[in-house]
Structures are given as C-alpha cells and as structure tokens.
Input
Amino acid sequence: MPAYPSNNGVLFPAPLQAKPFPMKKLRKAVFPVAGLGTRFLPATKAIPKEMLTVVDRPVIQYVVDEAREAGIEHFIFVTGRNKAVIEDHFDIQFELNHTLAQRGKDDQLARLQQLQPQAGQTSFTRQQEPLGLGHAVWCARDLVGDEPFAVLLPDMITLPGKGCMKDMVALYEKTGDNIIAVEECDPAETQKYGIVGKGDDVFNGFKLTGMVEKPKAGTAPSNLYINGRYILQPEVFGLLSRQERGAGNEIQLTDAMQKLMKEQSFFGYHYRGRTFDCGSPEGFVEANVAFALQRSDLNSDMADVIDGLLAEARPADKRRA
Ligand code: G1P
Output
C-alpha cells in the first residue's frame, strides 16, 4: 500500500487517511454555455437557453449560485454567438440599481447585489464551433491555467441550498485528484449519458473503475450516470488538445477523463439530491413547478393552483369523487 506524506511530513497509509498535500485549492469553475438550445425553439431564437427562467431566475443563475455555495471564487463562461446577454446578466446594471434605490425598493436591490459577482470574478471566452463538451471545456484552458477546476453543466440544476458541488468539494479535500458526481438512471436510458464503473467506497464517495460516453444498449458498466458536475485536474487539457472524436463524432470530455484515469485517480460522488434537467422542456417545466413549491412566498398559492389545474386536466372518469 502506498504511503502518502501528510501536511507536516508524517507518513500514513492510503486510503484510510487524507491524501497527499499540498493539494491546490479549488477556486475556478467552468460553465459551458455555448449550446444552441434547439429543443426550446422558438423560445431560444434570440434568447440563450441558459437565460430561460425557472420561477424568477435564469437557469444559469442557479448553477453559478451552486458553485459559489461550494466556495468557487472565479466563474468562467464558455459562450458562443448570441450569448452576450449572459455577460450582461452578471454585470452591474447601474441605471436599474439607481432607479430601485430612488424608489425605495431596497429588498429587490439587496437581492440583486447579493447575486452580483464581484469585479474580476468572471471571465468569458467563446467556443467558436460546436465540436462537443470536451472542446468547450478545452476552450477554457488558458483561463483555468495550471490548477484544479470545476465544471458545471448549466442544463442540470439542483434545488437551492441542496447543491451537489459543495459535497464534491468536501470529498475532494480528502481525496484530491478528480471527482465526478453521478446519479442512478433507468438502465434502459444509459445510452443517453456518460456512465461510470463503481469500485470500492472511499470516504463518502467511491473509486471509479472506468467510464464510457453514451454506451451502446446492454454494454453499460452500471446505471450510474454522470450528472454534469466535475472537479478535474488541469492535465485533462493536454488530453483534450488531441481533439479526438468520440460518440456523436464530438470531442467528448468523458473520453479525455477516461484516458487521464491511467495517470490519476478518479472518485465518484453519488448525489442523492434532486437534479432537474432543464435541457428538455419536460424537465424545465418540472423544475418551475418544484422550485415554486419550495419558495415560502409562493408555495401555498401554487399548491392550490396546481391542484386546480390538475383537476381540470384529468379526464372526468379519473377525477376523485
Ligand atoms: C453530457 C456529458 C455526459 C453527461 C450528460 C449529463 O452529455 O457528455 O457524460 O452524462 O452531459 O447531462 P450531453 O447531455 O451533452 O449529451
């Protein structure tokens, strides 16, 4: 069994104790937001899909908040054409703030200010061609530099305060290396996702034994799918720079991670919270209902509204007496 030096130079065996230091702190997160959002046309003809709102916040705001809750200090957006409004959203709207202050709308102003990244905390770069998730992440290589980074896919959102990334950071601080969050899916749906192989439990996660992007039916190593949250070491950029094509003829992040597994450890974190896939109209509508029901200022009214609508929508023979 390998022995790892601890902070103060004392040797102890792995994996019972925390992993080798110095381990670089996780400070940066990458948000690949270049996707066209064709499943939401015509809504996304002029508006990025990441700016569609769940209750009263754009989808991307929830994902950035999840990263901030996990201690992330710098937010890197990989955008594309027609996505400039995302940059505006994370900027100060001076005229708006001024008007709110003049009208005494202090609550709204405070809410905006609370969500506002500080000067210098955001960076934007463009994925010039839609060549896949791996390519989008690779576009952030210079902005990330030689340090670990998180990736959060903006389609997947979690309920406020129940984010996945915070728990992943806690695991990372014990294991180092690379962490991928997974959830269970219907075994009939594994070909839609990246799927991992599960090894021994380590702390509150487990060792990954392999991964495959969109496996053919019947070949998946498990039903644990990659849910769009990653903590990665910068060495993955070297593998992505090979620009090798994988599933769907795209440059896949999963393929580069799978190659990196030969040199570095990968750990899985089984997220038990609820993820809403806002990349599909059904998931997006479901998120709106679920998030409204979570809001103390909306939930009592919303529950009645939903009950009423369900009663109207149900065929007469299925209605409760
Ligand atoms: C991407 C990843 C896949 C992951 C999925 C989660 O696929 O490549 O590994 O399981 O996101 O949503 P995409 O949805 O872009 O096809």
